[in-house]
């Protein structure tokens, strides 16, 4: 049953009122359960190392796979949403997340955790989160921006509560029983999905989405028939399959936008490079603090501090960036936030005392709030909205690749050197270089676009001259003002 069929069977709901606010509440809980959950994995890092006698690199693969699948499963989630509807996909995600964590409690090797907690739980979280965000677009029109901002506070709540709960359960029951309880908690995604009842879609939206798919195939079929080929001819069938495959890639992975849109190209490369270092503090901050003598409960509190500050700073950052002053300039705010993230890592290198680490968490949380609030907003600025879903598909696939390999490679470096400082050196290198690349590249691109517009305006509207008695002479007619003077007048 497709999303349209599911919507058709549901009762038409008034948007921006009534049940829509219950759906918003479910979305807040959903984001806390899914996006907030990976932040607590670092608390179990030391226990998992001791349990399975694994290195830093081997242990870090488990949270890396979870986060990478959570971000990179977007295209698959979009296909399922289109086929079965948001409600079904959210509940399927909750079932997979709970099953993955329950299975993890029985694992006997670190590699089994890669499959259960990493792949299965990560994929389930991806389904629940992205389908939950999608359904908000159906329930909210006028208050859609507010709804998305409120829903994103669930991430900050998850960042605050998951570490505290994790440390308490770990101390009381051990990591296996904790993972078992986590499986039951994540099943609440199914409850959130049940609240997201189908809503009647606008009439005429379905034929529009179906039309582009039928035309290329029909043209290919007519062309083959005109050449005398049978509709069941193997060549025609292969061509049709290739056409459908190309259409699927074009819809969910916008390679054409990547090749043609310089802004999207720069931003995607910059964020992909940034993600090599962005997740490292979340994975290694707690092990680093424990390694330097900080009590385990205090070490877990550090992650909660980051989440607590995010609750207040992220919405403020979103409101600030939405001001008309920053229209077209949000990429520079984003680059500044990434740069601050990179510079803040040097605080951990200076000292590992608990008070210093609290200062680090405060500054990092402020910078992270800017990154989290602006990541998708900047993407909306650089691509057209009718191709946004396609651009988002390729964007999440690429960033999930570096999210996957970043922590294990850094863990390997820590294993070789036995020095946790390299975690923060590596994170700073990727974050600072990505911030400079994006900021300077967009600045150069903006200047290039201004030059192009100035040149185009000069050709379309040639300057008028006050001709004198000598105006018929060729030199006076062909004379043009200096290019530099024209550009500086804009």
TrEMBL record:
Residues 211-224 have a biased composition (Basic and acidic residues). Its main location: membrane. Residues 20-451 form the Major facilitator superfamily (MFS) profile domain. Keywords: Membrane, Transmembrane, Transmembrane helix. The chain crosses the membrane at residues 21-45, 61-81, 88-106, 112-139, 146-165, 177-196, 266-287, 299-319, 331-351, 357-379, 391-410, 422-445. GO terms for cellular component: basolateral plasma membrane. One of its GO terms (molecular function) is monocarboxylic acid transmembrane transporter activity. Residues 205-239 are annotated as: Disordered. It is found in: Membrane. SUPFAM superfamilies: MFS general substrate transporter. It is a multi-pass membrane protein. It comes from the Eukaryota. This is MOT6 protein.
């Amino acid at each position: 049953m497709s999303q349209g069929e599911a919507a058709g069977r549901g009762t038409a709901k008034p948007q921006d009122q009534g049940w829509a606010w219950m759906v918003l509440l479910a979305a807040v809980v959903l984001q806390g359960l899914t996006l907030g959950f990976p932040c607590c994995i670092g608390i179990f890092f030391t226990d998992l190392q001791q349990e399975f006698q694994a290195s830093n690199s081997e242990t870090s693969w488990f949270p890396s796979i979870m986060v990478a699948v959570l971000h990179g499963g977007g295209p698959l989630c979009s296909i399922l949403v289109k086929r079965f509807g948001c409600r079904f996909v959210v509940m399927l995600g909750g079932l997979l997340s709970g099953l993955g964590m329950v299975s993890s409690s029985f694992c006997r090797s670190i590699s089994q955790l890669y499959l259960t907690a990493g792949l299965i739980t990560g994929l389930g979280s991806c389904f629940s989160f992205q389908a939950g965000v999608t359904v908000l677009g159906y329930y909210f029109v006028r208050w859609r921006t507010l709804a998305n901002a409120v829903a994103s506070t669930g991430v900050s709540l998850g960042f605050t509560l998951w570490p505290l709960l994790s440390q308490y359960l770990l101390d009381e029951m051990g990591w296996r029983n904790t993972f078992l309880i986590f499986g039951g908690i994540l099943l609440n995604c199914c409850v959130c999905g049940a609240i997201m009842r189908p809503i009647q879609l606008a009439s005429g939206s379905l034929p529009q989405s179906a039309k582009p798919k039928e035309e290329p195939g029909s043209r290919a079929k007519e062309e083959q028939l005109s050449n005398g080929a049978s509709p069941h001819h193997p060549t025609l069938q292969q061509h049709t399959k290739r056409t459908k495959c190309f259409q699927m890639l074009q819809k969910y992975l916008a390679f054409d936008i990547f090749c043609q849109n310089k802004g999207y190209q720069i931003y995607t490369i910059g964020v992909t490079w940034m993600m090599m270092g962005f997740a490292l503090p979340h994975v290694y901050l707690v092990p680093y603090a424990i390694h330097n003598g900080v009590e385990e409960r205090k070490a877990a509190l550090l992650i909660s501090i980051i989440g607590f500050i995010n609750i207040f700073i992220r919405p403020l950052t979103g409101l600030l960036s939405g001001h008309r002053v920053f229209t077209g300039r949000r990429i520079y705010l984003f680059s500044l936030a990434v740069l601050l993230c990179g510079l803040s890592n040097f605080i951990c290198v200076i000292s590992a005392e608990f008070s210093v680490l609290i200062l680090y968490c405060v500054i990092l949380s402020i910078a992270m709030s800017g990154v989290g609030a602006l990541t998708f907003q900047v993407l909306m600025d650089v691509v057209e909205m009718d191709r946004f879903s396609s651009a988002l598909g390729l964007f999440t696939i690429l960033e999930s690749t570096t999210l996957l390999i970043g922590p294990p490679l850094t863990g390997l470096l820590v294993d070789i050197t036995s020095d946790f400082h390299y975690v923060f050196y590596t994170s700073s290198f990727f974050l600072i270089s990505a911030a400079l690349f994006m900021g300077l590249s967009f600045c150069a691109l903006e200047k290039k676009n201004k030059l192009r517009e100035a040149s185009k305006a000069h050709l379309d509207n040639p300057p008028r001259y006050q001709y004198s008695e000598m105006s018929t002479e060729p030199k006076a007619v062909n004379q043009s003002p200096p290019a530099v003077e024209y550009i500086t007048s804009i």
